[in-house]
User: Which sequence fits this backbone?
């Protein structure tokens, strides 16, 4: 209990408890003033301000974006572009707040937030771009793409910004991503006498062996190859190399790729088996890579793999263009040189080389760093114009050269550092993946990794795979039904979009984008309500799908 | 000062009173005639694909609008669409949608709303709207054909024909494929008699697909795809797989290397990011045909080595 | 309950104003009403104060849970597709989804292990409770609280780094102490002779068991059976000596109990090893750098070892709170009866903190069965090599986010909820709390 005297003293003196309240009020007032000024500044009738928000705080990106902005502002003296970099951690919350309150930037990087990724929200907050991306990009007037539609001037044909569920383009990609093999030149030279990049798979494996021997010689635990992501990023390249030639046999719909369903049908028909020389060669080759990795590498994460590489404890690592700045700066600090090359595949003269068709091409990769246009923006045309500049050959080259990212615009030159990451369109496309359906994948992948790690023989994987693939409740037939069911739902979902399109056309005649409408009708009608899946089952599995799938679905059309 | 304040308060009081009266009056008028603001909000809900909101906003508009007026028909139709597509769908919402579409047809027979309402009734029959919904292709086809008969000169007739043909093609009735052939014939007849059909490219592509699968009639499939190519592809930029299919049919099944080469070239030039451009170059070389240039292949092979800068 | 004579409590359910208690008047009613209002005001204020929390609880905790119940009856892809399908998700879970039920195998193992792993916390709390110096007790309590301020993810990453194959502390320790060579020998020894004998006491069926049998059979009886027999004999001896020295201190008792415990525990551990050691040698210890989280046979032992010595901060503090509720006179009475420290543990402390043990057991069970984040971060969405780390929660995560079947995942969640509820009821009923 405090005495009256004490309380009197308290009354007279400054009560420190009010500091917090004071700070809170002060912060609130300052925020209010700043927000009001900003709102006035941005929305002032005599000013033309475009705001662009992103979460790319990597070294160089903001500076690169600023350089492009300045270049654009020189061309358009009355326009001001304001860059709003927001940390990745709070981008979602920040964007959500602004989208809902109607104060979002004119251009927003799409991602992180549900409101910018889920179809039902995207349609509400972002502008469909079909109408503009088919026009030419005026900023390409100085090159041979002057008559090419904007969409076609990007390496990925703007697929990175396409929303399948909405049948519409909502984003414009600004960069590409690719993965490469990094190697420690100094370590390689010390181990092999040369720092030349491996040209073939056999050469790479020999270098790995030399690195292992060198590590033993100097008494240091050198892992020849440190990589994360298990084998998920490496295997597709070898998949294509060894199994692309199955296309002639397995591609039923002649669309140039082997879908997982087609691979499963082929497997059931005996056209492809685990014991085929090509399939065996594929698994053996991946196993050889596994042998050069740390035992139990599946537990190794990306940071750990990079830690080993930048500390000179690994000769090679496999990662993407996004890691290049970090790896190079750390390697520089440690005093060794880094080389970058494509993942080698076996040459014709090497073991299994006769089974290799060629390398995988990267032409069909999708762009990244997609920017969408906020629907409630008051300067939509200006925002789109800036986006066009950003993805013109000149603008995109400037952005990505300075940011050290691979460019997305056709013909835009990459920085010296990014040249090894330029997508290689030379190579094959189709590949066989027998892991049909998530349940087969679950079992097959986790057993295959045991084989790759040297913890179990191939026969263990084979047994597990053969068991699961024919299991009616989780094998290929289940996956087939699941795909059928998904396709049917997808058709039904597309009907909602069409209904919206048709209704709005009735309310405001002549406002419908006829191309978008035709595309949506085509996409829907060619899906045949998934009835072709039933036909495929009858034809290739020679059974009644309604019987085989009755446990998953009681009613069929 | 005090007096001024009092007067100010009085004015405020009067203003509030006036505002209340105005709101009440507006509300009263609104009940008789939906305001533009309400209508705009309801229409916006369709732009946002927010069907629950559509039901919420269009219901009072329909109640307020005079029966038979344009607004009334619009509201009835939009309520039907919203019931048709609101999540989660069930027998009740679909039955509501059917009844509302029917009302639209009765209210404005021969109007634009009625045409789409009839089409949508067909869509309800054709698609599985909720888990135990049994689809009925025959009754869907009846609806579509009714649209064609009632609105033969409206653009919707083409879409109805496409949908009607699809209900036949989707039967996949092996071994004779009678229905599939009927569907194809229906489309070809329509295309022959309607050269200006807005959906002709879509129709040719779909006919080509039906010839290709399940009929395995590669010659006719290629003929259809050739027609699509002449007219222009509807899903521009994503036609790569059809180019590849056409090239494969021409080269592997019909022994028509020139046509195959044409499509290989198109892949390189028009859809270089389809993933098949490199193989198309190889195919052209194999066929001894000239290879076109493409900016994508003009870039050098990614460097395989570099030093630390 | 004693009956009261106040009008408020004696008023029948029909309402206080309908029947007046004897001697009451209109004035007294109004006085009572005023008093009721006075009391009511307090409740109104209290309810008002509680309301924000209550609304928050309903909105952010219960509403999503009810959402899960609703969506378990739907096909829902987390986005646009949403269809009511009744109990079909549940039928699928019970009839055609073997993977979900397989994932319970690991949970049962972990539950068993976690029940054992909760004992170090109990003992730590008792030791802490018995520290006589208040100052030191305070210091230790603070030391136990400090780890609570470290984010869970940091602890997880630190432990992950312990297990790292190349640079991890665990491997460094095993290599430095020579234990790695012991493990390498054990590996070869346990799995080396799988062709010989397939039966061991009709229980264990591995080659390792037969190897042990060959080495440790004494007088025709297997070594492990000898350990069990000795353990049982020691228990009998403890009981007999207790009855002879009735009401007197038995100095041999702790040794007999301890010996029995050691024998039986060793037998159980060895039997478990024989049951679980794989047929083939692991060959991962030879190079001195086993990947504890990257080998299918080492994942479960690693997860069990995780957090060693298993003295959980929160657990210790909860037990300590329970122990501090034991009044001093209970100890004094025990000391007068000549009760030793071990007897105090089993006769006073453990029985009197059973409420805390039960609550921790419930939390532990809920945590073990519903956890998935730990396994996802550590082993990926497939539960690591051979799906060895696949728990029901992780399977649910896969179904929701990889298969995009959120409705089905909600149904699996509901099944988990019912299982957890059943276990909690079981604990409430059968984990005795004797005050």
Assistant:
């Amino acid at each position: 209990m405090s005495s009256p005297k004490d309380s009197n003293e308290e009354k007279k003196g400054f009560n420190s408890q009010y500091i917090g309240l004071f700070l809170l009020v002060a912060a609130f007032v300052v925020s209010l003033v700043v927000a009001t000024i900003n709102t006035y500044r941005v929305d002032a009738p005599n000013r033309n301000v475009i705001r662009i928000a992103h979460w790319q705080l990597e070294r160089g990106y903001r500076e690169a974006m600023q350089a492009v902005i300045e270049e654009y502002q020189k061309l358009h003296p009355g326009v001001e572009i304001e860059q709003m970099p927001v940390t990745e951690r709070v981008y979602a919350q920040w964007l959500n707040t602004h989208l809902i309150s109607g104060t979002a930037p004119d251009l927003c990087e799409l991602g992180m937030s549900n409101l910018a990724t889920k179809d039902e929200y995207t349609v509400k907050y972002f502008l469909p771009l079909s109408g503009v991306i088919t026009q030419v990009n005026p900023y390409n007037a100085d090159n041979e793409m002057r008559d090419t539609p904007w969409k076609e001037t990007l390496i990925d044909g703007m697929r990175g910004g396409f929303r399948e569920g909405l049948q519409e383009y909502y984003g414009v990609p600004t960069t590409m991503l690719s993965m490469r093999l990094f190697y420690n030149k100094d370590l390689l030279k010390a181990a092999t006498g040369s720092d030349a990049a491996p040209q073939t798979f056999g050469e790479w494996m020999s270098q790995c062996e030399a690195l292992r021997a060198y590590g033993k010689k100097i008494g240091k635990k050198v892992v020849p190859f440190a990589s994360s992501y298990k084998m998920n990023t490496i295997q597709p390249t070898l998949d294509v190399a060894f199994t692309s030639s199955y296309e002639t046999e397995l591609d039923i719909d002649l669309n140039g790729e082997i879908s997982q369903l087609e691979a499963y049908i082929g497997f059931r028909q005996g056209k492809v088996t685990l014991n085929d020389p090509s399939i065996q060669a594929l698994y053996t080759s991946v196993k050889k890579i596994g042998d050069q990795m740390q035992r139990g590498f599946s537990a190794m994460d990306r940071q750990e793999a990079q830690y080993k590489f930048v500390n000179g404890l690994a000769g090679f690592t496999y990662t993407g263009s996004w890691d290049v700045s970090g790896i190079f700066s750390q390697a520089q600090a440690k005093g060794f040189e880094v080389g970058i090359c494509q993942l080698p595949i076996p040459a014709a003269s090497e073991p299994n080389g006769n089974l290799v068709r060629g390398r995988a091409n990267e032409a069909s990769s999708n762009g990244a760093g997609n920017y969408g246009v906020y629907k409630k923006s008051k300067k939509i045309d200006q925002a789109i114009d800036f986006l066009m500049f950003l993805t013109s050959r000149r603008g995109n080259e400037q952005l990505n050269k300075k940011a050290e990212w691979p460019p997305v615009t056709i013909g835009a030159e990459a920085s010296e550092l990014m040249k090894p990451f330029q997508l290689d369109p030379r190579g094959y496309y189709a590949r066989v993946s027998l892991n049909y359906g998530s349940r087969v994948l679950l079992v097959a992948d986790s057993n295959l990794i045991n084989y790759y790690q040297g913890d179990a023989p191939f026969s263990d994987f084979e047994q597990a795979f053969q068991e699961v693939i024919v299991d009616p409740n989780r094998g290929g037939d289940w996956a087939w039904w699941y795909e059928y069911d998904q396709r049917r739902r997808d058709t039904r979902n597309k009907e909602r979009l069409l209904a919206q399109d048709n209704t709005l056309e009735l309310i405001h005649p002549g406002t419908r984008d006829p191309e978008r409408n035709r595309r949506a009708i085509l996409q829907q009608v060619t899906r045949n309500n998934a009835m072709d899946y039933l036909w495929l089952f009858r034809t290739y599995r020679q059974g009644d799908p309604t019987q085989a799938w009755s446990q998953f679905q009681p009613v069929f059309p | 000062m005090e007096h001024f304040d009092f007067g100010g308060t009085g004015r405020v009081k009067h203003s509030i009173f006036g505002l209340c009266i105005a709101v009440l009056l507006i509300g009263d008028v609104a009940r008789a005639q939906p305001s533009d603001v309400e209508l705009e909000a309801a229409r916006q809900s369709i732009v946002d694909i927010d069907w629950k909101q559509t039901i919420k906003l269009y219901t009072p508009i329909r109640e307020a609008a005079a029966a038979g007026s344009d607004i009334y028909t619009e509201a009835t139709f939009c309520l039907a669409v919203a019931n048709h597509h609101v999540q989660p769908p069930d027998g009740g919402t679909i039955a509501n949608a059917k009844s509302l579409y029917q009302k639209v047809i009765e209210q404005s027979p021969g109007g634009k709303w009625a045409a789409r309402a009839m089409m949508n009734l067909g869509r309800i029959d054709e698609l599985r709207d909720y888990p135990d919904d049994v689809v009925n292709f025959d009754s869907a086809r009846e609806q579509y054909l009714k649209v064609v008969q009632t609105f033969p000169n409206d653009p919707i007739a083409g879409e109805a024909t496409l949908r009607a043909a699809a209900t036949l093609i989707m039967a996949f009735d092996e071994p004779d494929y009678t229905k599939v052939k009927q569907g194809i014939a229906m489309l070809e007849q329509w295309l022959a008699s309607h050269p200006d059909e807005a959906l002709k490219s879509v129709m040719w592509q779909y006919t080509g697909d039906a010839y290709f699968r399940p009929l395995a009639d590669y010659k006719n499939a290629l003929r259809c795809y050739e027609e699509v190519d002449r007219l222009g592809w509807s899903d521009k930029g994503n036609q790569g797989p059809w180019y590849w299919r056409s090239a494969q049919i021409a080269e592997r099944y019909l022994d028509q290397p020139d046509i195959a080469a044409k499509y290989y070239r198109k892949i390189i030039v028009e859809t270089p990011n389809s993933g098949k451009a490199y193989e198309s170059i190889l195919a052209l070389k194999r066929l001894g045909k000239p290879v076109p240039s493409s900016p994508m292949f003009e870039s050098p092979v990614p460097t395989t080595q570099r030093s630390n800068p | 309950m004693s009956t009261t004579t106040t009008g408020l409590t004696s008023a029948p359910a029909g309402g206080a104003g309908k029947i007046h208690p004897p001697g009451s008047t209109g004035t007294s009613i109004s006085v009572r009403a005023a008093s009721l209002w006075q009391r009511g005001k307090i409740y109104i204020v209290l309810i008002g104060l509680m309301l924000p929390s209550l609304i928050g609880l309903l909105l952010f905790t219960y509403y999503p849970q009810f959402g899960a119940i609703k969506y378990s009856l739907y096909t829902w892809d987390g986005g646009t597709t949403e269809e009511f399908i009744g109990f079909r998700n549940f039928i699928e879970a019970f009839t055609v989804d073997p993977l979900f039920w397989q994932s319970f195998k690991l949970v049962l193992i972990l539950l068993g292990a976690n029940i054992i792993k909760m004992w170090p916390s109990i003992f730590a709390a008792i030791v802490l409770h018995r520290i006589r110096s208040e100052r030191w007790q305070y210091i230790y309590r603070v030391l136990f609280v400090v780890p609570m301020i470290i984010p869970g993810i940091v602890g997880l990453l630190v432990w992950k780094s312990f297990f790292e194959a190349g640079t991890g502390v665990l491997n460094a320790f095993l290599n430095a102490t020579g234990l790695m060579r012991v493990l390498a020998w054990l590996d070869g020894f346990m799995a080396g002779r799988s062709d010989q004998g397939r039966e061991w006491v009709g229980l264990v069926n591995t080659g390792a068991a037969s190897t042990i049998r060959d080495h440790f059979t004494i007088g025709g009886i297997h070594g492990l059976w000898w350990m069990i027999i000795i353990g049982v004999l020691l228990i009998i001896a403890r009981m007999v000596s207790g009855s002879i020295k009735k009401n007197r201190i038995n100095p041999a008792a702790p040794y007999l109990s301890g010996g029995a415990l050691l024998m039986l525990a060793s037998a159980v551990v060895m039997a478990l090893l024989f049951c679980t050691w794989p047929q083939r040698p692991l060959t991962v210890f030879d190079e001195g750098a086993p990947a504890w989280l990257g080998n299918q046979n080492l994942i479960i032992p690693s997860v069990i070892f995780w957090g060693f010595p298993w003295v959980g901060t929160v657990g210790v503090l909860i037990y300590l709170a329970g122990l501090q509720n034991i009044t001093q006179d209970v100890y004094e009475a025990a000391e007068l009866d000549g009760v030793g420290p071990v007897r105090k543990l089993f006769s006073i402390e453990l029985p009197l903190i059973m409420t805390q043990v039960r609550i921790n057991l419930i939390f532990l069970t809920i945590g073990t069965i519903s956890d998935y984040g730990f396994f996802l971060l550590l082993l990926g969405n497939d539960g690591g090599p051979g799906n060895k780390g696949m728990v029901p929660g992780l399977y649910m995560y896969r179904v929701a986010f990889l298969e995009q079947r959120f409705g089905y995942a909600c149904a699996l969640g509901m099944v988990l909820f019912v299982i957890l509820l059943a276990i909690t009821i079981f604990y409430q009923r059968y984990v005795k709390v004797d005050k």
